[in-house]
What we know:
Helix 1 (2-18) packs antiparallel against helix 2 and helix 11 runs antiparallel to helix 12 (471-488). The protein is of the alpha+beta class and 711 residues long. The chain has a domain at 508-667. The chain contains 17 helices and 38 strands. A hairpin with a 6-residue loop joins strand 5 (145-147) and strand 6. It has an eight-stranded mixed β-sheet with strand order 4-38-27-3-26-9-10-25, sandwiched between helices. A five-stranded antiparallel β-sheet has the order 13-14-17-18-19, with no helix packed on it.
Amino acid sequence: MKSKKLLLCFAVAMAWLVGPEPAHAYIGPGAGFAFLSGGLVLVGSLFLAIGILAIYPLKMIYRFVTGKGRIKGDTKRLVIIGFDGMDPRLAQRFMDEGRMPNMKALADEGTFSPLQTSYPSMSPVAWSSFATGVDSSRHNIFDFITRDPCTYLPILSSTEITTGEKALIKIGKKEFFKRPTSSMRLLRKGTPWWKTLGEKGIFSNIIRVPITFPPEEFNGVCLSGMCVPDLKGTQGSFTFWTTDPVLSGPDAGGDVLMVGRSGDTMRCPITGPQDPSANEISPMRIPMRVDVLTEDEKIRLTIGTKGNEQVIELGVKDYSEWITLEFKSKKGKAKVTGIARFYCMGTSPEFGLYMTPINIDPSNPAMPIAHPTVYSIYLAKKHGPFATLGLAEDTWALNERIIDEEAFWKQALNIWQERRSQLFDALDKTPKGSVVCVFDGTDRVSHMFHRYLDPSHPANEGKDTEWGKDKVAEIYGIADDLVAEVRKKLNPKRDRLMIISDHGFCQFKRGINLNAWLRDNDYLVLKESAPVDAESGKRISRDWLQDVDWHKTKAFSLGLTGMFINRAARERDGIVAEGEEFKAVKAEIVDKLSRLVDPKTNELIFREVFDAEKIFTGPYVFQAPDLFMGYKRGYRNSWDCATGACPVEVFSDNTKSWSGDHCIDPREVPGVLFSDTPINTDTPNLMDLGPTALKLFGTDVPANMQGKPLF
């Protein structure tokens, strides 16, 4: 392993030497970007690689004397493959049908079991519990988003981006040569188990585990996953150019741009991140001309300015390769590169061209997306460009019907193959220690194709019900094939293999707007200036709680499972006092919601409504939502509830392509656990994986971990 790590460092250094001109920008979700001095990231990475080479002999002597890095347990390598969203019921069904023979063999030799998931049951929470061995009240991740108690505005739960200015020279109170700066902070608390292993000198290779952005330092390498932004600083903004006047702008996820057609030519400028040299909002742009090649059923993209053009020919219903896009500021020499794929939806009678969100270029990263930074560069130089966006499969483009199921499926498979290459590279380079790789395709395909498994799903209306009816089973089969390939790489005498998922899946057929319910029950009050629905006479509110009268509101909802009490001790304009009033408001809401019936089915919709203080004991429960919604299968917070809107109706059919979900009572959607070795319990928990990994390598389990070793 030591020699291969040495070669990795050398390969990364060489990749830098032959690579393109370095990036000059720093980007954050919703924060724009601030420029760094040219080449700073890559130059620093080069010196890091050289430094590693220089101290390598001393490091080996130190380890020999101290025993650090020596693996005490019988296991020399632990491989954990995560198939996000793999469901135990579906896995059992597909094994019984013969679609997953390799995981069936693994189950027969060792273990197959449901894996208890996190409270609440969503990916950022669950994978954080996997990494740290503790629940959300101890790692501080309760949802994708939360509210800022000082403003009530939404913020990312996992990452904080701050921007400002820093002077290069300061004389007294005078500052000279100010330049923008940006910093990132991971808000997840707790220590990942691979960092604990690293303190003992045991190496880990961590690939795309959610909530690892920004990447933390440890003895190993890490490619960050969920919450890595795109080049615009968002969590994924596609672009679609069209001549079809029927199409309107999407509700979320990107831009639909109308273009004029002159014969067979269209002008489709590409909009990038904000230009930091401009005083006003002014994004950087790259010109693009599109020519329709009628006879060949192709289009030609000419990207860039004259003398520096890229020309790409693309067939209808085909994806391009990753295309490098270089954005330059109007003033100065600052520039930043990203990568995107293009997909032509058609040229006649109307033209439609889709561009993925502009991903951070892994070979020339505008911000750190890996530890060390050179790791993404190494992977890109060896295997080619790859998706870096945290939520890389563009579910919003399909949800808004900008692309179709076929385009989404092709995109998901492209990303799967990229991840596969990264996994097998990690297996080759890490003969000792741990390798963890998470594949998102099982989750994304389940979200977007789950309706095919239920003919009565309201999302089927007006959509294809045949083409994608076997895609969920197909992605499970692709995962099964991967397991067979991995097992061929392992030595059963010294390697351990575990297959896990963070949660399971179910249909999402009906949405509940908790804010509408709170309004109807006098817990949430809207301003007198809020719009009024003419038919019902009810006041309604726009997204992000914009029209809420905080001085009269006792409770509100934002996100996918949580409800906040407007506490005087926590929120800026909180009115509910701590103590008896706080407890009484919670108890009253829990009681009423527990009896809430869906008027369409006459069924109760909640299995349980959870009081955070009764299920959590960690130090971050005060920041958490005060109540969590334990929906029954088939229900979930509605789309407008998730964004803090308050419409007329409480209940609504889910008609979007995003038809499957898991943000319900966690007991309804456990994940899966496969192991090549029998385990010691019938009720394994996601929090058990960290302690298990530490125990396998003969390392003591920290007292703060709530999970228990499974062997």
